[in-house]
Specification:
There is one protein chain. With 280 residues, this protein is of the alpha+beta class. Helices cover 46% and strands 18% of the residues. It contains twelve helices and nine strands. The protein has a five-stranded antiparallel β-sheet. Strands 7-8-6-9 form a four-stranded antiparallel β-sheet, with helices on both faces. Helix 10 (212-219) runs antiparallel to helix 11 (239-252).
Length: 280
């Protein structure tokens, strides 16, 4: 049996496994064996939902992602701004800090983007895998992400999830937002403004060097930075925060925008579009 036939049969076996059991981590492990590569399955907030790390494979960038449980801002922005991915096609990208190219593909089920599949191409064979094999593997993993997301007891797992839903205009009232935020730091959170960071210049100047997230969390510990629609979104509290942020922006050659004063968090959807437009 040729490699292409074996891969197709392997994908069909994965389909049988999907119907036989209900475990994203096991499906990711099996998919990695079929594709013969290390891989990451990310959810829609760029956190690691499952992965395969084969014995003997060594890649500092990959291992750091597994250890941290999320990809870097820089990798997240590459995903957000890939023309191929925005059109629903897979894309091969080279990330700073790793000698191996990676194949990125969005995981979509029922018209909903649920995450991303990242496969590490250690020897150049990924481009030879048949399109139908990729399609079946991606559909199975996307469906399992959909199943696991839909069975969650709570609609939002983290404060970051709540903020993203708020920015998307998903809360119909301030009372509903406050109810969801009640058991998170957002319940008593009153930042003065928010800021956006465009990472384009940072990637070109500081590629492979210091991670921006580490610097933000060290110098602005209450900023709670996260990646949203290709930019870093964070909060600022006092004038000292603004000064520290300006200094960091200058050091890292960042294109940044600080919003108008924020009366309450529920106003974020009103202020965000104007801020994002001004950043362009």
């Amino acid at each position: 049996m040729g490699d292409a036939q074996w891969e197709t049969c392997g994908a069909e076996t994965l389909l049988e496994e999907f119907f036989a059991q209900d475990d994203l981590r096991q499906l990711a492990e099996s998919a990695g064996k079929i594709l013969d590569c290390p891989l990451l399955v990310l959810d829609d907030t760029f956190h690691v939902a499952a992965y395969r790390l084969p014995q003997g494979f060594s890649d500092e960038l990959f291992q750091n992602v597994v250890s941290c449980g999320e990809i870097t801002y820089e990798a997240g922005v590459l995903i957000s701004r890939s023309p191929a991915l925005s059109e629903g096609r897979a894309d091969f990208l080279q990330l700073p800090g790793s000698p191996y190219p990676r194949r990125f593909a969005l995981l979509v089920s029922a018209g909903v983007q649920l995450g991303c599949l990242i496969c590490v191409d250690t020897d150049g064979h990924l481009e030879k895998i048949p399109a139908q094999t990729w399609e079946l593997v991606e559909r199975i993993l996307a469906k399992q992400l959909f199943v696991e997301a839909s069975r969650q007891d709570k609609p939002f797992e983290t404060a970051e999830d709540i903020l993203m839903h708020l920015l998307d205009g998903g809360f119909s009232s301030a009372a509903y937002f406050q109810l969801q935020a009640a058991n998170t730091y957002l319940a008593d959170f009153h930042p003065r403004t928010f800021a956006l960071v465009d990472l384009t210049a940072y990637r070109s100047v500081y590629a492979g060097k210091r991670r921006l997230k580490e610097a933000l969390e060290a110098r602005l510990p209450d900023s709670h930075p996260f990646l949203y629609k290709g930019d870093v979104f964070l909060f600022l509290h006092e004038d000292e925060d603004a000064l520290a942020f300006d200094a960091l922006a200058e050091e890292f050659h960042l294109k940044v925008l600080i919003s108008e004063p924020l009366d309450e968090l529920f106003d974020l959807p009103k202020l965000y579009p104007t801020a994002r437009e001004a950043l362009e």
